[in-house]
Structure formats: C-alpha cells, structure tokens
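To illustrate the input format used throughout this study, we show a single complete record. The first block contains the structure-token representation of the backbone; no residue identities are included at this stage. The design step must infer an amino acid for every position from geometry alone.
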C-alpha cells in the first residue's frame, strides 16, 4: 500500500501538482557538522565545535523525527554529515529507522571504520554505505580530502565491513573536479578490485557550503579528458555504474550551460527532502528556502504546510538554484520519459533495474 501511494504521488508530480499526497520517497539527513577530514570541496569541517554542539539534536529528538518520517510514508532515509560515524549514537538511530520499516543508507569517508566500528555498522542493520573515493591514488585522494592516510582508510574500511557483513552494499562515490577528472577509469578499476557494489559519480557542486577551492573548478580545456574518461567507464566498467548514460551526458551541460537543466522539473520538496543537524527542513541540500524546523513542528505538519507549497511552486517555476544533487537526479530523467516519443526508454533493462532498487 505504501509503495502504491508513492507511485500515485509520482503521478501527481508528473501531472504538475504542487501538493503531494504523502511524504517524500527519500530523505537525506545531515546528522552533524562534525568532520574529521578537511576536504577542498566542502566547508563543513570549518564549523567551530561550540556551533556543532549547539546544532546537534539529542538521540531522542532524532528518533522522534524518524517516527514522523515513517508515519508520513518515507521509504528511504540516508544519513550523512560531516562524518556520520562521529555521532556515537548513530548505530542506535539506524536500528530505530530499520525498525520502522525504512531502507537506510549512509555517506562516509570511511576513516573511522575499523573492525569494531564495522561490527557496530553491521549490527545496526544499515542497508548500504556510500564511501567517498576522489582519486585512484593516495596523492590525489589525500590532497583533495586534506588528511594523509585517507586513501588507505577507504580500502581498510571496505575490507572491515565485508569481513563482518558480506551482504552490505558498499558503493564508492566520486566527485569529479579538475584534479581527478583524468583518474575516473582508475577509480573504477579500484572499485572493481575492492569488490564494491558500484560506483556513483557526480559533479562538484558550487553552492554555499560546498563552494570548492578554486583549484577544483573544471576548466574548458579539461572537458575532452572528461569525455574520454566517461567513454572508458561505459566501455569497460558499465556494470559498476547504477545510472543511465543520459545522467552522465548532462555533466558538461552543468559545467557550461547549467540554465539548460531547468528543462527537468527538480524533484526536491516533493519526492525528496533534506534535514540539517538542528532539525531544519529544506527541499534539498542547496537549502535555498527553509520549510520549517522539525523540533518545533512534526514533519507531517511542515510537509503539507503553505510554506512547503510555496517552495514547490518556486521549484516548479524554476525559481531555484541548479545543483547536481536533486536537479539532475535519475528520477527527473525517468519522469521525462513519460511521453509518447520517449516512453520506450523507461522499459530498458538498466532503467528497470535501477527503479526497482530505489522503490
């Protein structure tokens, strides 16, 4: 019944509605601003410790939010940070979300995943973990991540997780930038050797807290390298890529003509949402307009509030900044196939496999 409701909700979105009938399919939740790396493409790690403490909810407050999300029909919950495993109670929170019937994922730099932490992760019931890998060697990865040894910890973390829970789905996630664009195929090779479930690839975002160091901005003269690397990925490592080719073909659009991506109606605020460590609810990671705070009001009340409707109207009319996280998601593209001339693309085996994994 919950799945049918989500499918009907998607149909309303496709029909142009700005009033959902249920909660979002997926919620991303930044649990803490605390981070143990110093990445060049992110400023979260610069947050002072007093501010981190001030903006971190108690476990009981977090559990209450999880309950509200489950009651609203949310099917997928993904935790991140900062570094999610710096919150010592995260394992209990994951287990609570699992007890409410949700699929639970996470994003980590893997620096902390020793044998003890790997066991805690396994016992919590976490379904999948995305681990950042930003180079095919330690010099590139550690240089981008800002801490020596980060590269080695990625592979130690994967090995530790697989040793205690072989069934857990581990993905590498690579953020493309000027420093690592020539290493995408090398990263894919590392992913295959590590035995992970797949490799997700995204562009470096340029908004607010994710505004990257200038050395990461991709110049035009590196676009041929990007094209060449993507061809190698689809030729030799297509089995590792969970998304369709059209998703990757928009990389260059995002870099050179991002305004063209308004052709996709962003799913943020309708089928996905973002929670900040202090409970603030936003439509997406860009956080261009706050819906409300989940400590002050329950999720269901905020999700169906006039302020949420106003946000959805802005997104529908293209009055929002373009980002790579939700504006060009595979779901946007799949919904764009629902027209007589493109619907055949919806029934490709790869598309069906990805959709079934997500719902």
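Output of the design step:
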């Amino acid at each position: 019944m919950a799945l049918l409701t989500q499918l009907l909700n998607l149909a309303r979105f496709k029909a142009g509605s700005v009033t959902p009938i249920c909660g979002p399919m997926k919620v991303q939740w930044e649990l803490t601003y605390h981070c143990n790396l110093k990445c060049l493409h992110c400023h979260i790690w610069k947050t002072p410790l007093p501010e981190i403490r001030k903006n971190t909810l108690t476990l009981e407050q977090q559990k209450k939010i999880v309950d509200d999300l489950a009651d609203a029909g949310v099917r997928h919950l993904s935790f991140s940070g900062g570094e999610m495993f710096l919150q010592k109670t995260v394992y209990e929170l994951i287990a609570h979300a699992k007890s409410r019937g949700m699929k639970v994922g996470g994003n980590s730099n893997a620096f902390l995943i020793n044998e003890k932490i790997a066991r805690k992760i396994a016992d919590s019931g976490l379904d999948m973990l995305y681990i950042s890998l930003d180079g095919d060697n330690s010099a590139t990865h550690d240089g981008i991540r800002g801490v020596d040894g980060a590269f080695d910890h990625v592979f130690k973390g994967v090995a530790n997780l697989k040793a205690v829970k072989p069934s857990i789905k581990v993905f590498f996630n690579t953020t493309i930038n000027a420093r690592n664009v020539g290493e995408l195929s090398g990263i894919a090779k590392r992913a295959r050797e590590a035995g992970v479930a797949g490799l997700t690839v995204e562009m470096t975002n340029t908004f607010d807290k994710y505004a990257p160091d200038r050395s990461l901005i991709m110049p035009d003269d590196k676009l041929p390298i990007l094209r060449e690397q993507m061809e190698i990925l689809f030729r030799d490592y297509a089995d590792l890529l969970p998304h369709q080719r059209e998703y990757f073909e928009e990389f260059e659009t995002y870099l050179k003509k991002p305004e063209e991506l308004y052709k996709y109606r962003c799913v943020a605020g309708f089928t996905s949402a973002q929670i900040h460590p202090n409970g603030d609810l936003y439509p997406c990671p860009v956080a261009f307009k706050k819906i409300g705070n989940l400590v002050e009001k329950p999720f269901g009340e905020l999700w169906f509030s006039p302020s949420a409707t106003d946000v959805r109207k802005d997104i529908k009319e293209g009055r929002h900044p373009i980002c790579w996280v939700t504006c060009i998601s595979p779901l946007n593209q799949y919904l764009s196939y629902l027209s007589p001339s493109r619907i055949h693309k919806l029934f490709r085996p790869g598309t069906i496999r990805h959709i079934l994994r997500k719902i």
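Structural context for interpreting the output: The longest strand covers residues 169-176. The longest helix spans residues 150-164.
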